[in-house]
Amino acid sequence: MLELFLAVLASLFSMVNPLGAIPVFLGMTPHYTKQERTQTALHTSLYFTLILLTFFLAGSLILSFFGISINAMRIAGGLVILLSGYSLMSGKFAEGRAVDKKVKQEALTKDDISFSPMAMPLLSGPGSISYLISIQAEHTTWEPRLVISAVVVAMGAIVYSVLRYSPYLQKVLGVAGLNALSRIMGFLVMAIGIQNIITGIVELVKVLA
């Protein structure tokens, strides 16, 4: 179970990439006090955790409701993850999560940015959601599902910590450091996406054969 916890945590961390969200978060909260930024970080992490847990726990229902096979979800999710990884590799983290200049400008006038655009779509995007739905369908017993749920909660705590200390992390890592880390994450995310596509195609061929 520890191996499953670490494997899912590593994959989810790469796809969520909270470090890549630091410049976006700071850019949307330039006039926030330390207390306001901490509160926004807390609310963002709570929304993020609830969104991913909801999609994870309802994964089988979503697949059956729309009549989608697990292999189709793997392939479609793999393509989304692959595109997300490419966005990270090209240094377009926010744009790859549908957070363009218009969204950023709108966020500056909002009283609360924790749910949108921070929790969704910036952090809990289609890639992480499709990934969780896929692994939920793969693990049919409650023990591994509880482990994966614990990973989502742990990821929420990581998101909170990264956003809360984002000014210090940006000073320590710098813009160049954050960009370098995002590109490394992008490479890993692309590999995860390709693996999902390959697995989906292989399993689909087995079913058809």
Automatic annotation (TrEMBL):
Membrane keyword on record: yes
Transmembrane as UniProt keyword: yes
Keywords of the record: Cell membrane, Membrane, Transmembrane, Transmembrane helix
Coiled-coil portions: none
Membrane topology: Multi-pass membrane protein
TM annotation in the entry: 45-68, 75-94, 146-163, 183-205
Protein name listed in UniProt: UPF0056 membrane protein
One cellular component term from this protein's GO annotations in UniProt: plasma membrane
Pfam families per record: MarC
Subcellular localization, as worded in the UniProt entry: Cell membrane
Family: Belongs to the UPF0056 (MarC) family.
